[in-house]
Amino acid sequence: MDSLRIQGSGPLRGSVPISGAKNAALPILCAALLADGEHCFRNVPALRDVRTMGRLLETMGLSFSMEKNTVDIVGRPVGEPYAPYELVKQMRASVLVLGPLVARYGRAKVSLPGGCAIGARPIDQHLKGLEAMGARVELSAGYVNVEVPKGRLEGAEIVLDFPTVTGTENLMSAAVLAKGRTTLVNAAREPEVEELGRLLNKMGARVEGAGTDVIVIEGVEALEPVDHAVIPDRIEAGTYMAAAAATRGDVLLEGVTFDHLEALAAKLRAAGVVVEREGEGVRVAASGELRGTNVTTLPHPGFPTDMQAQFMVLMCTATGRSAITETIFENRFMHVPELNRMGAIIDINGRTATVEGVPKLQGASVMATDLRASASLVIAGLIAEGTTNVLRVYHIDRGYERIEDKLSPLGANIVRVSE
Ligand code: UD1
Fold this sequence. Notes:
This protein is of the alpha/beta class.
């Protein structure tokens, strides 16, 4: 298994291109299930999760090919609307095929994603929505079987208990081919949901309000294949912003949508980091002392849970104390013991981690069991004295395109070690 070997190496300087958004690309690729014909998706990040989604679509009979950052999919009627455990267990987001399959074929069998490293993550809201649209849902032997007795879903008003991101995306993708109007209340407002709405409308759907908490969808009879470029990855961008600030560097992120980064930018500024829009990019610079700053994760437009671990590392060497509260997932502090092994002082009490700033971290061999926690350990390695080995890099490869190749030109001393 590959690892990353990092030598603490001073401020990052230069510019870094930001890739397409993983969490936007995954539901978009699933939308190819909704229409036959040739789809072309551009600016798709070359990541493990994208390849896993490709394999899942291929098992259902679609053709999937990826050349650099362009994905060509030929949509055709699927053999069996079935997502096996072997693929779903590798990537929870596989559950995003559920909405399109039920919309198009009136039935689907999808493995339950099960618990994952960052919490229980049930899909009850996805299923509740499909039931409201006339589907019958049955759980057996680790699979969810969905069947629409009338053959076609019917529009409904669905009030979500929580603004779940993939739940909102699944229900949007289901409602576009339903009979009549669907209203999703308390919908997730993440930019990736808004992006899916844009994509579906390009395919001929009638979706209004994606990106707000009420989404109204008028079902249509059929959709068309599409050519679409994916929005930039705000979490990848945010990770490089945190790395730039933590190393007291000066980095220009190229090709980002600043509006998607407001909550993070506000907290970085509160900590004393300079964050400026510069053309189609964002410049992040820091020097000297940073201030301890409290953060609470919330659904968008609040502070993203996917940036919590990276922001925490930044706080490790800030002056004073910061309280970092995680409200989205119940078990998302797995980076904390690893950071403490590197000399950080972090105390967990329920959903809040309290960080006492220290002058320096020390390199160590560390390992994390989820994607963003692993990214936070890479940042920790950049600011630590000595050598840090981040093990189990495959977590990082799920969500970051060539992280070592993007950090090296900025002056980081980071190499991939294959075993
Ligand atoms: C998506 C993102 C993930 C991000 C998360 C929160 C993708 C592929 N993944 O994950 O990177 O961290 O949003 O921004 O886009 N919940 C329920 N019932 C449900 C659905 C969710 O109780 O039916 C709970 C979950 O357990 C969790 C919370 O809602 O506590 C948020 O989950 P959700 O928004 O669904 O996250 P994902 O869509 O899985």
